[in-house]
Design brief:
Blueprint: H1 4-35, E1 38-39, E2 47-48, H2 52-59, H3 62-93, H4 100-108, H5 115-126, H6 133-140, H7 157-182, H8 186-194, H9 199-227, H10 231-236, H11 248-257, H12 262-292
Antiparallel strand pairs: 1-2
């Protein structure tokens, strides 16, 4: 057991960040839970409605379920690009002997670029008239029949707004996974190769199990960021065309600041917090269960 002075020092160091976390995170969540029990337009008196906002969200609002379905598709694209891309690039970085630091910096750059700049960049890339980069490349390789207004086509818009988010953070997760792979003992890999293991077996039996704790953390980060994704989809399409790229976050924003229904928007914000907590629990249980097995 720590001496009294040591315990006092620990409390002294922990108290400021805990107070900051409580004021910046827990207090707004508590206020959202409170407001979700009211009908309020931001000006008139609040009217207590209990769980009516939640009942309407789950049983009386088809737009919410459309947004939730789109959010799952958005999450899937982001996870494939971010985690799959990070694992692939980090594995390739282990084989590079020259220019490794330059490559890492180049991959990390999108994470520090302004969101508005990324939105404008991909508007130009997806542009149909004038011809943007993507359609121009398709035309140049003889696939002009695939050219389309990517942000206006209901069949492609969700993937089109998800891809920039996946590209934006793939470098960040690459650096995290790469650092974990560097910590894998080379003696284990060399012993496995001497026993006849191929590259895939070395990866699945040694590397990945060794980096599993980092992989769990990275998956949680990518999942929660995607479930809270808002800025790039809002900048690119504002949820359109129709509701083809509407996410729970963009719908919540418009409900609060366009429809001025702050009580219902607060209920959606509580739902976002809860789905993030559920996702974290599922990821932790599934990945750690595999580790135990």
């Amino acid at each position: 057991m720590l001496p009294y002075r040591s315990r006092l020092s620990v409390v002294g160091f922990l108290l400021p960040p805990l107070l900051l976390f409580g004021g910046a995170v827990l207090l707004p969540i508590g206020q959202s839970v409170y407001l979700s029990l009211f009908s309020w337009d931001g000006i008139s008196d609040r009217e207590f409605v209990g769980l009516e906002n939640y009942r309407h969200m789950f049983a009386g609002d088809p737009t919410f379920w459309t947004a939730f379905t789109n959010q799952l598709g958005y999450l899937a694209v982001c996870l494939v690009l971010q985690l799959g891309g990070a694992l692939l690039v980090a594995s390739l970085l282990l084989t590079i002997t020259r220019g490794r630091e330059v490559v890492k910096v180049l991959y990390l750059l999108p994470a520090v670029i302004s969101t508005v700049a990324i939105g404008l960049l991909f508007q130009r890339i997806y542009s149909y008239d004038p011809v943007g980069l993507l359609n121009g490349v398709l035309d140049s390789v003889g696939l002009g029949s695939l050219s389309r207004p990517w942000l206006s086509d209901v069949h492609t818009v969700l993937a089109a707004v998800s891809a920039p988010e996946g590209w934006r953070f793939v470098g960040l997760y690459t650096i995290i996974v790469y650092a974990a792979l560097l910590a894998v003992p080379r003696e284990l890999e060399e012993a496995a190769r001497l026993d006849g293991a191929n590259a895939w077996q070395v990866f699945t039996k040694i590397r990945f199990p060794y980096i599993r704790p980092v992989w769990v953390t990275t998956t949680i980060m990518a999942t929660t960021f995607a479930l809270r994704g808002f800025d790039i989809p809002y900048l690119l399409t504002n949820g359109g065309p129709g509701q083809s790229s509407e996410l729970v976050t963009t719908y919540m924003y418009k409900t609060a600041f366009t429809s001025t229904n702050y009580g219902y928007a607060s209920a959606m914000s509580v739902f976002i917090v809860l789905e993030c907590l559920v996702a974290v629990g599922l990821i932790y249980l599934l990945l750690n269960r595999k580790a135990v097995q």
